[in-house]
Amino acid sequence: MIQAINHIGIAVKNIEESKALYKKIFNVEHFHEEIVQEQKVIVASFKVGEVMIELTAPTDEQSPIANFLAKRGEGIHHIAFACDSIHNDLQKLGEQGIQLIHNVPTQGAHDMLIGFLHPKSTGGVLMELCQHNSELIRE
Ligand code: ZN
After folding, report:
1. What is the third-level CATH fold of 2-135?
2. Is pLDDT of 49 > 90?
3. 65 alpha carbon to ligand 1 midpoint, in Å?
């Protein structure tokens, strides 16, 4: 079940330039930085209240973020929702006719499993489900 907004993903070209900009706007002192090999991205994140902002730049031309930047430019990329049973939640949405980008969750940043829903079946919004690895229910 979807429980909360976990983060907002923002596609950026240059992680250092974007960090400087966000530092200015939000007075950020520290970014959590991580390379996610599966997505070929570097992520710099910080929290605004309970919600994380994830600045995401491609590390490779094959990255999905590189495609997005080429088509749409910088901007909001996706909204990520924390859920309590990511395998079941993705499966249920698939059964309800929502097109999934990941039928099975994949590794994301912050030691979370993630799965994307296709924007074609969500009214144009790229949505991500995520769940921290430590919260997975062992079935
Ligand atoms: Zn995300």
Report:
1. 2,3-Dihydroxybiphenyl 1,2-Dioxygenase; domain 1 (3.10.180)
2. yes
3. 11
Distance from the alpha carbon of residue 78 to the mean position of ligand 1, in angstroms = 7
Dist. CA 7 → ligand 1 center (Å): 6
Model confidence at 38: pLDDT above 90: no
Domain borders along the chain are 2-135
pTM over 0.85: yes
112 Cα: distance to centroid of ligand 1 (angstroms): 10
pLDDT tens per residue, range 7-16:
999 999 999 9
Which are the contacts of 77, defined by CB distance < 8 A and separation ≥ 6? 9, 10, 11, 56, 65, 68, 126
